[in-house]
Design goal:
Distance between the termini of chain A: 25 Å
Number of domains of chain A: 1
Oligomer: homotetramer
Shape of chain A: globular
Radius of gyration of chain A: 16 Å
Number of helices of chain A: 10
Strand content of chain A: 15-25%
Largest sheet of chain A: 8 strands, parallel
Largest interface: A-B, 43 and 43 residues
Structural class of chain A: alpha/beta
Number of strands of chain A: 8
Strand order of the largest sheet of chain A: 3-2-1-8-7-6-5-4
CATH topology of chain A: TIM Barrel
Order of helices and strands of chain A: EHEHEHEHEHEHHEHEHH
Helix content of chain A: 40-55%
CATH architecture of chain A: Alpha-Beta Barrel
CATH superfamily of chain A: Aldolase class I
Chain lengths: 230, 230, 230, 230
């Protein structure tokens, strides 16, 4: 699914007021432009209600922020992998710290996504839980210490050892090659550059973009950080 | 929002394989046609991912099957009232038995919907919980004994006393005038007719339509049941 | 179960370090002494692990802080009404804001307690949810705005209208006579006196006692507040 | 904590009517006798309300069936590691399939138990989730395919590959030496014998004992199965 040394940049729209409607599409188009300009693989994790509209507006990948590991049928208010796919989504975040999941449901959700050829980005907040989710066969792992989310204090600055320990432990348990993303507090070029230096494949960013006065400038800045020769 | 003696027919798409994509729109158009033919107010409770597509395809009301009572912002994987509204939804089911909610969250969700001028249909499974949710100021109440959901055995046949007791108790606690819908097992004209006879304003139906060989025939049948002079 | 004009004082042990072992029994004996001295009905809501030890150490009532509305059998890690009773408990708190429950589970838990002749004190945080739980036939209702819990700022001072509105609404929906307790921030004599003046039957207190340097003095103070002629 | 080749037999009392009061102590004493007779390490996972009474009645280990990963203090209705320890418990089951936990809470619960020198037995239902929990540093891992729980059809007969795959994967990710228990449907000597043959250190059993007409005979039978030379 990804090329060697590919740089990955997931924009988590969360449920900011900029995450839906025209603003959501506007950010998507900006991200698409930056992705084309830089070659960075930008993935948009958007609200369920916006998957189809955004996926049909841009060529870069759109994914869900969560799926419920339920079978199709009598599941009112749930989001299935099949629905995400039908709407044009390519995958989903799983177990984000704002939507934590039961261990057994994480495995089931990853499996249900794979069954319909969608990919999963499993989130975790510590090195050991990151390694644990890597065993459940997600396509990528994102590491986000929840105490830094939304702070503007990057994990790559404040707790680089969380990233390096996660990478080491994931590799040790057989996850060599699985792309690892750095989340929580990533807000400037230095942060994204440092993430790659520490060995990550990319970043997972929300507030720095969704609340930005100039989202294009911010997306470009973070993208160029990912590409900086180290 | 509703007229006196208006008949209401909520089609809960749940997450059936017919709930999304072209099939979901097809059922919506059929429902729209039957609604125009019969004057029954048909409301479509559709998957989050389909709200915008279906709402822009038909003139009848489209609602969500659930919302999370969270504020906009850092709420990954959640569905806010604002998102539903932006996608063209007019309201939401709340506390469906397949997506039960904390008591405090029910009040908060109804309030969040109202704040953005969306309506709520609060579900309950017993007379006392139906009366309890009616105190939280929803726009309608739906009563569904969960043991009958999906069985094809209508509550109006098997447990009519659940409906009458719900209506009495809701009225007793000050909810006179709030439309009450009958759910669980509603599957034929007799069922919808009986629901109105018992004093309900309408029905909440899922499997009988979503799994129907001929959805138009089934939607029409249930609609005519609602209109039958008693 | 309670006499007219009886004053009720529930001490919620929560899970403070003083809630278990010798300290937990010590506070229970102090409460028993104050109860005998003052005639106030003091009820101890203690950790599951302490119900039997405390219930066998004092003559005043001991209750659980929660029960799970499950049937006996294959329910690992759950607490049934039967277990609470077997340990000597007389009832349970239900739906405390630190252990919120699904609406349907609140009704079921109250029913399961009653089935084994235990009583329930259903908690709520707003007037409307308080009235809603009163319809589910609990033996008492406790009103606690969660934002004041543990603050030392009493609801009877900061938000007396929450208490009066709760009492009015509960009475309006048919709950006249059900004892209503005031919780959240109750910390001195003035607070407990005010609670009774507002029409409540008593108080639900945690931190003011569990963290007190002199629990006896504090329990006595709050008890005398409940008895003060107004 | 355990010796080489030690055989471990966890009796999960669940919430059967035999799990509390005199019957619970009776089963504990029987288990203690069998443990002394056979040398099998029998551990009793009992209801919260019974930990102290049973732990003070027998010399074999008593553990909780669950703990909540919360700090002491304002946590009504929760069970802390400290409470379990104060009541005489030596550890706890974690993430039983009837009390599933969020991934992040599993790590936190194991950590909280260890902080007060209690041990943890983390449950999982598949080889990959078993390996995942083994990374969170529990003291033992129990593997129980939930579809077999309570059936009397042992996993060691029906799905031996679940056990062998779990053992292999746990070892592969660095968990060599961690005792693995086999659960779900273990009901006779053949089952416990097979569990050891497959490489497990012991068994986790509930209904076969809690519902037995002659618990002593059943506990002895399963214990001797664990000891059988293979």
């Amino acid at each position: 699914m990804e090329m060697m040394n590919e740089r990955i940049f997931v924009i988590n729209y969360k449920s900011y007021s900029t995450s839906y409607g025209e603003k959501g599409i506007e950010i998507a188009k900006i991200a698409e432009k930056v992705s084309k300009d830089t070659g960075v693989r930008i993935i948009l994790a958007v609200p369920f209600t916006e998957i189809r509209a955004i996926a049909s507006s841009v060529e870069i990948e759109v994914i869900a922020q969560h799926i419920d590991p339920v079978a199709e049928g009598a599941a009112t208010g749930h989001v299935t992998a099949e629905m995400v796919k039908a709407a044009g989504g390519k995958g989903s975040l799983i177990n984000h710290s704002e939507k934590r999941m039961l261990l057994s449901d994480i495995e089931e959700a990853i499996s249900k996504l794979r069954n319909v050829s969608l990919y999963s980005i499993a989130c975790a907040s510590t090195p050991r839980t990151a390694a644990a989710v890597s065993l459940l066969l997600p396509d990528m792992v994102a590491v986000e210490p929840p105490e830094l989310i939304g702070t503007g204090i990057s994990v790559s600055r404040a707790k680089p050892e969380v990233i390096t320990a996660s990478l080491e432990l994931i590799e040790k348990v057989g996850g060599k090659g699985i792309p690892v993303l750095v989340g929580a507090g990533v807000s400037n070029k230095e942060d994204s550059m440092r993430s790659v230096e520490l060995g990550a494949s990319g970043i997972l960013v929300a507030s720095a973009i969704m609340n930005a006065h100039d989202p294009e400038k911010k997306i470009a800045e973070l993208s160029y950080g990912l590409l900086k020769k180290t």
